[in-house]
Specification:
β10 and β11 form a beta hairpin. It contains eleven helices and 20 strands. The model has no long low-confidence stretch (mean pLDDT 95). The N and C termini lie far apart (48 Å). Strands 10, 11, 12, 13, 14, 15, 16, 18 and 19 form a nine-stranded antiparallel sheet that branches. The chain folds into four domains: 88 residues, 3-Layer(aba) Sandwich (Rossmann fold); 55 residues, Dna Ligase, domain 1 (2-Layer Sandwich), CATH 3.30.1490.20; 121 residues, D-amino Acid Aminotransferase, Chain A, domain 1, CATH 3.30.470; 80 residues, D-amino Acid Aminotransferase, Chain A, domain 1. Helix content is 26%, strand content 31%. The protein is α+β, with helices and mostly antiparallel strands and 377 residues long.
Length: 377
């Protein structure tokens, strides 16, 4: 029985473990919080710091193959395990490229992968020497997550809100559509691609609000985004599952925005919407089974459930029964013990109908299902 280790115990690890129950595998999770969402679903829970090399090495020596559910893990630990012959998905080479956005952007440029023009900025004072590059998007090189660490700078007047740290300054592109493509790479280099999804972001929180599959693309645009996503995954030279986020302008030009080396929010719809979910696919890769069928079963819309403004503490899911009574509505609650405004607490996937119908039903879910807390803030 293959022993699979997961570094990190959040909702992504939880959903991966839910799928792992269908396979002859033994699961291990390392996280600092024994009450994390994934802790109760694994065979073995290890309390440890995923950013600590010694903890990662000690944990990795207990399993046959190791994966991550968040990028903020010890590269040194993964490299040491690889030198001992342990399998790591994704490998430390790919993770080292992706988790630093400045290195990631240079990687795109060096491999001829289309991305927005950019400059590397060391601190806020450096921005004053690059005013000619505005309007631009400033992204922290490291540490950004779920919309944090991103700032739009349109004019010099916006500089006071800029980050005072090493960052990427990307030329602001007039975005027509934002899409994501999941690419699976097995240990032998075989590639499997999921249909592109169209993403809608919350303009205030700057994180994914909802996504629709399939994306509304022309045939030409569809081929472009798939080809670019495959180019990113191939050039990373690593097995694993990669979520490639792309931007399209009104002329149909495609630019890579960012890449995540793991299961991803943009693939959650696949649990019900595709024959093989992203979590099932990653389990197949880790256990060295054949890739699954990524075809779409029905059109889908995935809606993130976020903590309501003004509430914190133990989560209360108002309207849950009403949404569960809706046809082809599937609710996933992440098992987090505390809510706060804007925190991802779950998601709902809707299946069937056309885009207009899905958006209409999503509006009903949004008005009905609220994640509040026991404390008013």
């Amino acid at each position: 029985m293959k022993r699979i280790g997961i570094l990190g115990g959040g909702q992504l690890g939880r959903m991966l473990l839910q799928q792992a129950a269908n396979y002859p595998v033994e699961t291990w999770v390392m996280e600092s919080d024994p009450g994390c969402p994934a802790a109760g679903l694994c065979h073995h829970f290890v309390k440890g710091d995923i950013r600590n090399a010694d903890d990662v090495v000690a944990f990795g020596r207990q399993v046959d193959v190791l994966t991550i559910e968040i990028e903020n893990v010890s590269l040194e630990g993964l490299q040491a395990l690889e030198s001992e012959g342990r399998s790591v998905f994704p490998n430390s080479h790919a993770l080292g490229i992706i988790r630093d956005k400045s290195v990631q952007k240079v990687f795109y440029a060096e491999h001829g992968i289309p991305t927005a023009p950019f400059r590397i900025i060391e601190d806020r004072s450096d921005l004053h020497r690059n005013l000619d590059f505005l309007p631009a998007v400033q992204k922290l090189a490291t540490g950004g997550y779920d919309g944090r660490g991103v700032q739009i700078l349109r004019t010099e007047d916006d500089l006071p809100k800029a980050f005072d740290a090493r960052c990427v300054l990307e030329k602001l592109i007039p975005v027509h559509k934002e899409v994501a493509v999941m690419v699976a790479i097995d240990a032998q280099g075989g590639q499997t691609v999921y249909p592109a999804v169209e993403m809608v972001f919350d303009p205030l929180l700057n994180l994914l609000d909802m996504q629709v599959c399939p994306a509304d693309l022309t045939e030409s645009e569809g081929w472009k985004v798939e080809a670019v996503a495959l180019s990113v995954a191939r050039n990373l030279r690593s097995p694993g599952l990669f979520a490639v986020e792309l931007l399209l302008d009104a002329a149909g030009n495609v630019y890579v925005n960012e890449t995540a080396p793991r299961v991803h929010n943009s693939g959650h719809h696949s649990i019900e919407g595709n024959f093989c979910s992203q979590f099932d696919m990653l389990l197949r890769l880790l256990a060295d089974y054949p890739a699954g069928n990524t075809d779409t079963i029905l059109p889908s819309l995935m809606l993130n459930l976020l903590g309501e403004e003004g509430y914190a503490g133990t989560p209360v899911y108002e309207g849950l029964g009403e949404v569960l009574a809706m046809e082809n509505a599937f609710v996933h609650v992440y098992g987090k013990r505390e809510t706060r405004p804007g925190r991802k607490m779950g998601h709902v996937t809707l299946l069937g109908g056309n885009r207009h119908d899905l958006m209409h039903r999503a509006g009903i879910v949004r008005r009905t299902l609220k994640v509040k807390g026991t404390e008013r803030i």
